Amino acid sequence: MPKVRTSRTKQPPEGFEEIEEVLDEYARKMRDAENETHEGKRKQESLWPIMRISHTRSRYIYDLYYKREAISRELYDWLLKQGYADANLIAKWKRPGYEKLCCVRCIQFSPGC
To answer: According to the lineage, what is the superkingdom (predicted)?
Structure first.
């Protein structure tokens, strides 16, 4: 989840204003998914909506930088540092054969995905 911006936080790089609305929408969806009732669901089932939103937000940032080249390297690094995207997942997407990976947990030795 992205950090809360305060006056001490470094100002976002140029170009953040263009994608801020989309990222705020993902944050709203994430809050809704976290506050949703989990009664009658297994632990894994209750995490699926959260993982899906995290995946789509990371994919959005990945596509902006690597596919469409719509954001600068400075903004991309800042977004990763602020927690808007999963850096480990994006690192796997850059490797051949991992383009459709949904989460890093899927390739670790643990049942779940």
So the answer is: Eukaryota
Q: ∠ CA 111-91-13 to the nearest 5 degrees?
A: 130
* Residue 42 is assigned to a structural domain of this protein: yes
Containing domain of residue 103, as a range?
Answer: 16-107
If one counts the domains in the chain, the total is 1
Number of Cα atoms under 13 Å in the Cβ half of residue 76 = 17
Q: pLDDT tens, position by position, for the chain (113 residues)?
A: 666 666 556 789 999 999 999 999 999 999 999 999 888 989 888 889 999 999 999 999 999 999 999 999 999 999 999 999 999 999 999 999 999 998 888 888 666 56
